[in-house]
Amino acid sequence: MDARGCDKHGSMNRLYTRGGDIRASHFLKVLRVINKLCDDDATRTEGFAWLDAEWTSIQLGRAWALERSCNEQSMAEIFIEYALLSAELFNIQWTPVDRVNEFKLVASMAHRAGYKNGEAKALAEWGRALAELGDIVP
User: Which of 1, 21, 36, 53 is in the most buried spot, having the most CB atoms within 10 Å?
Assistant: First the structure.
């Protein structure tokens, strides 16, 4: 440790963290564009092609935001937005059980953050996924 209380790799750790935060924000922007493309009949095919091409990176950005969400409010907000923007896409990519688990977590995070609109949207998506499961509860 140096006099500032940092280990010898402190600056590299900050650089790594900053890079991860930037990637998480970037792929959230990509997801916004994909969402808009998929909403329009004329560009839906392009949107789904882009989603297929970027799905792994979007999931990595989402996972980074989730991992950092306990310590950073901004990453919690990014994670919540990932989930809410992707609600319709999750219907295609994820099983109802995956969506139940995702939106239960998102509703809890939004509640803790005081984000009432996000909590309401997450609860609605959670309910839709539970309805698809019928009487089976994970």
Answer: 21
